[in-house]
Amino acid sequence: MRWYLTGVVVSGFGTTAMWLVSGIWVKSLTGSDGLAALTAFALWAPVLLGPLLGTLTDRVRRRPLLIALDLAMAALLPVLLWVTSADRVWLLFAVLVLYGAQGAVHDAAEQALLSTGFGKERLGSVNGWRMTANESMKLIAPLAAAGLFARYGGGPVALLDAASFALAAGAFAAMRVREEPPAPAPRERGAWRRETAEGVRLLAASPALRPLVAAGAFTMLLAGVNGAAVYAVVDGLGRPAAYAGVLYAVQGAGSVLAGLTTGPLLRRVPERLLAAAGLALFAAAAGARALPYEAAALAASAVIGLGMPWVLVAVMTAVQREAPAEAAGRLAATANTALFVPNALALALGAVLVTAVDVRLLLPALAVAGLAGALRTATDRVGPSRGACPGRAGEHGKGRGLGGRRAG
């Protein structure tokens, strides 16, 4: 766990820095709020292929896969040194799409490794530590990245991110973890397609997961619109685009608190209620960002940082608890797709909305929708875990259902 969290911290620092700077980079070269918002869409778009990419994580050992993915990004990111003018912005978008694809596989492999390497009763705490380690980087990475960009441009930030991936690969290589060798991949025609579909079927067959994942997907839909509006919010405060780094840093502080409180809360309340509370906090704070006051924007960012991770960790923990070991990667990737495809689509939609609708109208409407969704989530009756899903849990599952396999 020590080496794992080290890898999460260093890669989280670089990813947060690159996430922030990519939007500022495009904004500075093109002057377009819409294109700046589309950088986030480029990063999220590959989650559309999540179930397909997740199948890879069930065919190989997860730790070597994490190492290989991090080294690949360390080698790719230096090409962004060539993005020095508006006519080369396409290269940044191309790298961001590959970045997003790497992240989709990486996240599925991490979740699968955690779900099979820790007792199910510890997953809430483990995910809280992971969230704290990752989100704590938002306290320093946005400010460091914005300052580095303001003085030297985007190229050095890309090199910083490449170095963080290399360090993360070293941390994952130092981990001591026992992994059962994956079952041999079936060689018959269409096997990959059938295994990919199995992750979708497992999620759809679980009465415990369906409503939770739906609540998470709705939250991320609203979060996409909220994220696309960040530069318009900054403009409304009369601040330069780089001020978005301050808002992200404050949001990171809220996320650190979320990570520290998630484990204890999940030992006392079901995932459904934690998700509902997180959605309510997020919605109220997003609406408050419409106020033209810097104090309100800072406070809202902190509350968003608290609420949204509660939703995501609640869903993630439930998926890991229900996942059979032989299909953990596919189920995690399918759940991630269900969660983050709405976010990617909303980022694209939000890029249009922020140019057509005043954020003083857009964000309060988002808040009303979010509070209604939170009420629905809190009052929904969630079905129990099933001991077994019909059919096979993958080609080699022998009928293990979502609740049918428990780690020690």
Walkthrough of the structure:
With 408 residues, the chain is mainly alpha-helical. It has one domain: MFS general substrate transporter like domains (Growth Hormone, Chain: A), CATH 1.20.1250.20. 73% of the residues lie in helices and 0% in strands. The chain contains 16 helices and no strands. The protein has helices at residues 2-30, 33-44, 50-57, 62-76, 89-117, 123-135, 141-152, 154-173, 191-204, 210-228, 230-236, 244-266, 271-288, 294-322, 328-356, 359-379. Helix 6 packs antiparallel against helix 14 and helix 13 (271-288) packs antiparallel against helix 14 (294-322). The longest helix is centred in the first third of the chain and has 29 residues, at 2-30. The radius of gyration is 20 Å and the shape is globular.
